[in-house]
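Practice problem: predict the structure.
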Amino acid sequence: MRPPPTEEVHAMRRRWLMLALGTAAQTAACAFVYGIPYLAAELRDSGHLSLPRIGLLIACPTVGLVAALVAWGALADRHGERIVIATGLGGAGALLAVTAAVTAAGGGTVALGALLFLAGAAAASVYSASGRLVMGWFTARERGLAMGIRQTSTPLGMGVAALTMPPLAAAYGIGGAFGFLATVCALIAAAVAVLAADPARPEAAGAAGAAAEPATNPYRGSSTLWRIHGAGALLVVPQFTAGAFALVLLVDTRGWTAVDAGRLIAVAQVLGAASRIAAGRWSDRVGSRLLPMRQLAVVTAAVVAVAAFTAAFPSPLTAAALVLSVGITASTNGLSFTATAERAGPAWSGRALGVHNTGQNFTAAVVPPLSAAAISATGYWPALAAAAAVACGAAMVVPVDSPRRRAVVSSVP
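Answer:
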């Protein structure tokens, strides 16, 4: 007969349950917010929309997200993560159900854009609070891996969307695709409401926690957080240039069907999820989030430059280069989030993550329409080449960790 689990085992199980809930909530939100590109072919064919107009629709959820991120982060700092995630994700599910009904009834582009904006604003709760939930339950030596796993939610959500949106839209129309997203968001919101538990608040963390995590305004007297925010936002450019238009690039230049291209992009998103986990584990081992982030930014620039070359001269290598680009451009996201939360401390992490998310998602909102306009004017390869240049700039913006700071990250329990 096995002995009953110890208190340490119970604590470990609870930590991993919180990680699973935070990751699931973020995956559902990402499947919606970043899933619209995978409806691009259906929107173009059924609605007779131009690529720039589709780019504006793709941006609507992200614009809503940006508008609400800091407010949701402040609510998470004040009231806790569970209620914020459950309320926001549940609201997003309800709005997506309305979107499905309006779309099925033949609603116009303006109505669709407005509903996507509101649903994105509701989903912002997950972006601001799920990171706090994970950071609060894991120690410094586990956070890189834990946040790397949590940040797999973006490529996993995009992978779910790539795999499901084209066939659902083909079979049931765009309204059917939104109905699926509404159901997923509602179910996970209910799970969070029932099962999630907020980590200890800063006031209860004790003197040791207060010493390790600053309670004063982390933006005063240092540019480090702003540089992390800036580098994270710049690295969104190659990620969303490759991710948003890889499907239509394969359709236009290689003659693939939208369903087949979606399946390949889903594979690429799995690679992106794996790259985030590996990057997080690497950062735990070296005691730094910023050193791997800078090196991966350089790798991103090189890989996207290769994708630009294969887009200029289409061949069977084009698909492989796009898969690698979509996977590698996702690798740095968890590092920038972990660095932001650690520098801000528990009393400020909700707001700091809100600011970080605002910069990243503002960039994500403007990249699709700008890239779509550039692609329409000049073709796919110049847009990818520009994205590679931006990744080079991001590598220079990432701040340098001092040896003392690396020692702190490695030693704090």
